[in-house]
Amino acid sequence: MDLTVDKRERLVELLASEYTVPEEYIDCVIAAVKQYATKNYSDEVIEKMVRTPQSLSKGLALLRERNGNNDLSLFRGIISEWLVCAEYNALKNKGAVIMTITNPDPSSKADLLHIINTGEGFKVVPGPDVKSGGSTYVFNQWKKIVNERYEIPMVDIDGILTTEEGLKQLTKKQRAEFDELCNQFPNKQPLDTSFDKSDINRVMADYLKFVEFDLLPSAESELSVKDINTTRIKEKLYSGTISNGKTNDWLVYINESKEILQPKTVYSEPIVEDVKVDKVPVQPKQNTNKNLQQKLKKSRGLLRFIPQHPLDGAGKILKKEGEQYESLLLKNQR
């Protein structure tokens, strides 16, 4: 992804704020958190979880120091979820998908949640489990999802399972098992992302330098991410010194993500020729087919998403009554 200094700066400002679920979606998000939770939460705990503003800064608690060096691996996983969330809202979501948010439940396998307009109300389906790390870890996590949590896709942040270079890191046994599972479950192949390793590392460094030194990417400084002090950052977090900037609802995150990540289209003035125009305009033929919304209103029960492509997302509403939605994600185009 082409991340200019301006885009990086806007991403830092986006990630430095906190976001709330719009009131009209609260109930469906509560239902989804309860459905996909891996812990036995009470209803009161779930509602509080959903109504509490979500912010990336909470992930700073995962910063570590190991053998005298900063260990950013766990925090890198959290910031990756927020970047993939921005990518879905800016580049992938279509049709009935209203928005994608980070899951208020940090223990859930679904790191993101898709809010859908069914035509008869709102529903939330699980988004992907966003994974990064070594080849064996990523492979085992994907295999676990395929075998145990089929409704949840997986985004492969580091390209371990989505690039030829990454697949070369697998052992012969792992590669054979990977190919077998892909053939057996063609709709569950791991998904890639428009962000590559350097993009994620760059934005992570920008964010941490902003938190630690109050520096934006455009500022000239010799300080680097190696100069941050994880202990000091966590002290600032726990003391409340770190500000989450503005408190917005998720619609702000969605709209700003589009402004930052969507390619800009340059329009030129069309060449208009001198043509004759009939005095009586031709009336367009009326479409006698019932449109999708009319069909939906007549159907009853739960609808589900049927993708046009095995890796397509929950972008099309069709299929028979009474079935659950499948969260098969949009095809990533690098």
Averaged pLDDT, please? 83
Total number of beta strands: 12
Name the overall outline: globular
Number of helical elements: 11
By secondary-structure content and strand pairing, the structural class works out as alpha+beta
Distance between the amino and carboxyl termini: 8 Å
Major sheet characteristics: 3 strands, mixed
Helix share bin: 25-40%
Radius of gyration computed on alpha carbons: 22 Å
Order of helices and strands: HEHHEEEHEEEEHEHHHHEHHEE
Poorly predicted regions are: 271-334
Portion in beta strands: 5-15%
**Major β-sheet strand ordering:** 2-1-10
Please render the helix and strand layout as text.
Blueprint: H1 5-15, E1 18-20, H2 26-36, H3 43-51, E2 54-55, E3 64-66, E4 69-71, H4 73-92, E5 97-102, E6 112-117, E7 122-126, E8 129-131, H5 135-148, E9 154-156, H6 164-167, H7 172-184, H8 197-213, H9 230-239, E10 247-249, H10 250-261, H11 292-298, E11 304-305, E12 317-318
Parallel strand pairs: 1-10, 8-9
Antiparallel strand pairs: 1-2, 3-4, 5-6, 6-7, 11-12
Helix pairs in contact: 1-8, 1-10, 2-3, 4-10
